[in-house]
Amino acid sequence: MRTDREPATAGRAIQVEGLHKSFGALEVLKGIDFSVERGEVVCVIGPSGSGKSTLLRCVNLLEEPTAGRVTVAGTEVTDPDVDIDRVRRRIGMVFQSFNLFPHLTVLENLTIAQRRVLRRDRAAAERTARANLARVGLSDKETAYPAQLSGGQQQRVAIARALSMEPELMLFDEPTSALDPELVGDVLAVMRSLAQDGMTMLVVTHEMSFAREVADRVVFMDGGVIVEEGPPERVVADPQHERTRTFLARVLDPAAAGLSEVPQAGARGPEEERPEP
Ligand SMILES: Nc1ncnc2c1ncn2[C@@H]1O[C@H](COP(=O)(O)OP(=O)(O)OP(=O)(O)O)[C@@H](O)[C@H]1O
Ligand SMILES: [Mg+2]
Question: Where is this region: Disordered (predicted)?
Answer without folding.
Answer: 258-277
